[in-house]
Amino acid sequence: MIMLAPVMLAWAAAQNSSRPARGGSTGQVQLHNGLYHFTDDMAVHIEDLRGALVPAANNSIPVFDDKNSFVLRIADAEIAISTTAMSNVLNSYILARSDSPLKDVSIRVEKSELKIKGKLHSKGNIPFEMDATASVTPEGKIRLSAKSIKALHLPVKGLMDLLGTNLASLIKAGKLTGIQTEKDDLVLDPQQILPPPHIEGKVTGIRLDGNDIVQSFGHPEKLKTHHGRQNYMRYEGNRLRFGKLTMRDTDLTLLDMNPNDPFDFYLEHYKDQLVAGYSKTTPSFGLRVYMRDFNKLGQSEQPAKGHPR
Question: Is the whole-model pTM more than 0.90?
Answer without folding.
Answer: no
